[in-house]
Amino acid sequence: DVYLGWLSEATDSTKAINTLSPDSLSKAYGGVWSNEILFLFDKDFDPSKMEDSIMIVLQDSAEHPYFQPVPGVITSPFGWRRWQFHAGMDLDLDKGDTVRAAFDGVVRFAKWGSGYGNCVVIRHSNGLETLYGHLSASKVLANQKVNAGDVIGLGGSTGRSTGPHLHFEVRYKGAPINPASFIDFENKCVKNDTCYLTKKSFQYVEDVKIAAGTMKYYSVKSGDTLSKIALKTGTNVTALCRLNGIKTTTILQIGKVLRVR
Fold first, then answer.
1. How far out from the chain centre does Cα 43 lie?
2. Which of 67, 141, 153, 259 has the smallest set of CB atoms within 10 Å of its CB?
3. Whole-angstrom Cα distance, residue 65 to residue 78?
4. Distance CA 257, CA 218 (A)
5. DSSP 8-state assignment for residue 147
């Protein structure tokens, strides 16, 4: 699956869909828009310097609702997976299942996105973008307007994926936020019509920076075994297996990078 590799005022979301355009939505995102770059960041937004909360309007009426992208259950949540940070959440589906837009918006990106495989990114008028990854096929084009519930793709397992599922992300001005903090996936609705982002919403950014500074790695060399690597790096085989999600019987490939601390 895909992980966070990044270490580096809300707007009115009640406008009718026919007022949405790349030009208008770029203003909600620091003036940036691209159909070629998967992730865009508002250079003026720094989560580490937040002092006040930010109110995000998620839905305002039956005409601007939230729609569950797929009905499947959560199979992997937002947050840490062993030593990697999962920047979204995985929702269960079968290959070919319909994937729908969560909110009204405009498609900013609809193409292959590295580890995300076939990927669609939709920008919304409240500073949010939603990302739908590992699709078997996209059913929308860049700069296309969509309503919540519109079909945007078909489920799959493209990119860095071990099986069919939807990788779903929500980002505020480029910074991932936990979708489960404001979406009730079991009941397929938002928890409230509005949500508030605070500095705590982005605490993982500092956690990732700290982890990056404390983690140590080792590149497997010819003749290495887990026991030899443990001895060289001052750890033990049990810890190596736990940190890297491997077994004591796993065959080590020369050049493979293992986390040792």
1. 19
2. 141
3. 23
4. 6
5. -
